[in-house]
TrEMBL record:
<dbReference type="InterPro" id="IPR036361">
    <property type="entry name" value="SAP_dom_sf"/>
</dbReference>
<feature type="domain" description="SAP">
    <location>
        <begin position="50"/>
        <end position="84"/>
    </location>
</feature>
<dbReference type="InterPro" id="IPR012337">
    <property type="entry name" value="RNaseH-like_sf"/>
</dbReference>
<keyword id="KW-0479">Metal-binding</keyword>
<dbReference type="GO" id="GO:0008859">
    <property type="term" value="F:exoribonuclease II activity"/>
</dbReference>
<dbReference type="InterPro" id="IPR003034">
    <property type="entry name" value="SAP_dom"/>
</dbReference>
<keyword id="KW-0540">Nuclease</keyword>
<keyword id="KW-0378">Hydrolase</keyword>
<keyword id="KW-0943">RNA-mediated gene silencing</keyword>
<protein>
    <recommendedName>
        <fullName>3'-5' exoribonuclease 1</fullName>
        <ecNumber>3.1.13.1</ecNumber>
    </recommendedName>
</protein>
<feature type="region of interest" description="Disordered">
    <location>
        <begin position="320"/>
        <end position="343"/>
    </location>
</feature>
<dbReference type="GO" id="GO:0031047">
    <property type="term" value="P:regulatory ncRNA-mediated gene silencing"/>
</dbReference>
<dbReference type="Pfam" id="PF00929">
    <property type="entry name" value="RNase_T"/>
</dbReference>
<keyword id="KW-0597">Phosphoprotein</keyword>
<keyword id="KW-0694">RNA-binding</keyword>
<keyword id="KW-0460">Magnesium</keyword>
<dbReference type="GO" id="GO:0005730">
    <property type="term" value="C:nucleolus"/>
</dbReference>
Length: 378
């Protein structure tokens, strides 16, 4: 029988070992979210006891098990609950299939041209960093960084240089976006991504892909790569997993008891720190699954190439992603029409308004590049 010793400082869940199965039989497989096996009811009890602990008691318990004691109370609770879940499920011989369904995470954080007090400014990507995280090893295994030469506004503003630290000399010596994108995809191939190895793009918020990448590809007159049309928004995953408010990179790091390393608004440094957050979430038992995507539809009847794109905050899930329901968020999709064959600068804010992004989400990211682009009004 299972027994729970109540108390703030000393409790444990004991799970009766499953009887030996007959030769050739396999233990039952349960997916996260299905609690038909008794072990899940017992875990529910232990979670209730964890919820009663204060921060000092949580840290004491985590230290006892050799776990990280840094972070806010909600972070510590999630960490301890996951420890008990993992250990007791192993004891009960129940196999749970929920896990991050990719070999690698490709963390991307663009830097782009910008002007102060110019909301309709047409941004161009000027830094393309990628940080590769091995999901099983839970560590950074490779980095890619290239500067990009802007063509629409080739001269950087003093505001842009001051914000990003990217000088005119760096972009003048760089290749245009199309060539840099080719280098990125060649780098992906070198690491077997999209071939024998699976991967998912991970970003801090939705803007890198459905704003910067989307408009850059439109400006460059190229198709948006398939891998960039669906991604993991770590802000959303972080909020859902730790049950806390959304925030930017530095806020997420602070909540985890970590500090920013490098220079803010350096694309490669931002990407490294986002990767550190993702690794900590993996260590804490988070199943990072795709939670946003963009679909582009072209109207063949219009010579101006009118496109409709749909931002899914809850994309249709793959089998691996369906095992991660606890990290998903049910938000309705919004459809946005726009003429992207010509001058779309005057329509950007109108389209962003129709995306109906919660203002609190934008305010949480005051350290994000977009806040300096004066896009809060969208």
């Amino acid at each position: 029988m299972a027994a729970v010793e109540n108390g703030d400082n000393n409790f444990e869940l004991f799970v009766e070992k499953a009887p030996e199965t007959r030769s050739g039989t396999k233990p039952k497989v349960y997916k996260d979210g299905q609690y038909s096996d008794p072990v899940f009811k017992k875990l529910s009890k232990i979670n209730g006891e964890v919820n009663k602990l204060n921060k000092r008691e949580l840290q004491s318990k985590l230290k006892e098990f050799g776990l990280d004691t840094r972070g806010l109370k909600e972070v510590l609770k999630k960490r301890l609950k996951n420890f008990y879940k993992k250990r007791n499920i192993q004891k009960s011989r129940v196999r749970v299939t929920g896990k991050t369904g990719y070999d690698y995470l490709a963390v991307i954080d663009f830097e782009a041209t910008c002007e102060e007090n110019y909301p309709s400014y047409r941004h161009e990507i000027i830094e393309f960093p990628v940080v590769l995280v091995d999901v099983d090893k839970m560590e950074i295994v490779a980095k890619f960084q290239e500067y990009v030469r802007p063509l629409l506004n080739p001269k950087l503003s003093s505001f842009c240089t001051s914000l990003t630290g990217i000088t005119q000399e760096k972009v003048d010596q760089a290749d245009p976006f199309v060539d840099v994108l080719a280098k990125v995809e060649a780098w992906f191939s070198q690491h077997g991504l999209g071939q024998e190895k699976t991967f998912a793009v991970l970003t801090d918020g939705p803007w890198d892909m459905f704003r910067f990448m989307f408009y850059q590809c439109q400006e460059s007159r190229i198709e948006m790569p398939a891998w960039s049309k669906v991604w993991i928004n770590i802000r959303k995953a972080y909020c859902n997993f730790y049950n806390c408010g959304r925030g930017g990179i530095e806020i997420m790091l602070h909540n985890l008891g970590m500090k920013f390393e490098g220079s803010p608004h350096s694309g490669i440094d931002d990407a490294v720190n986002i990767a550190r957050i993702a690794i900590k979430m993996l260590c804490d038992g988070c199943c990072l699954s795709l939670n946003e995507q963009i679909q582009i539809k072209v109207d063949p009847r219009d010579s101006k190439r009118e496109a409709r794109y749909v931002v899914y905050h809850e994309p249709r899930k793959s089998r691996a992603a369906r095992d991660c329901d606890e990290n998903s968020e049910g938000e309705a999709a919004e459809e946005i029409d726009g003429d992207y064959g010509g001058d779309y600068s005057g329509e950007i804010n109108h389209e962003m308004e129709r995306l109906h992004i919660d203002m609190s989400e934008v305010d949480d990211g005051v350290d994000d590049l977009l806040s300096y682009y004066k896009l809060q009004k969208s």
